[in-house]
Write a structure and sequence with these properties.
It is a single chain. It is built from nine helices and no strands. With 203 residues, the chain is mainly alpha-helical. The termini are far apart.
Amino acid sequence: MVGCAKNLNISQQTLSRWQKELRDTGNIACRGSGNYESDEAREIAKLKRKLRNTKDALDVLKKPSAFWKNNGSIYCEVSKKAVTTQKRRRHVSVTGMLAVLGVSRSGYLAWLKRVPSHQQHHKQVVQLKIKNIYNASKQNYGAPKIAKELCKTGNRISTRTVDKYMKNMGIRAQWVKPYVVTTKDSDFSDVLQNILQQDFNPE
């Protein structure tokens, strides 16, 4: 079966599913992604693809960097989405996402071939350092403290720039609620005074 699937350029799971359908029903209902039982089934599949592409595009728009003025930020988030879903072994349609986002596919392909400039490379290095300091602080450090830590290592950078990079990466400092003592000791022997001296009927 492995050799047969390899010759047909399909997965072994797909071939096993076809064999099961043939044994159970005596026919293979759908062979390949382009053959459908009816026009209704084709339309349903088309709507499902469109809905999946829209959901993927919305995930891209949730990223703060996607709202930059240039399309490069959107291309970057689309590329990250494609890599992430590929690691999860889920197919994502880059062309479908770009159509929903209203950006061109040719521009995306040209962006993939573009060599990063020195400024972009420096920015990526600084963002990586910011992320490492942020994680080392258990996500408690904000822009001012991270800027100080970077200056200690010889990286002169302003707090405003660190804050902008953190917003682009979608990270921010987590506020830790200070510990407040709510339970007090019930032993008041050293504080209270016995004024009555057990004389409950004073003159």
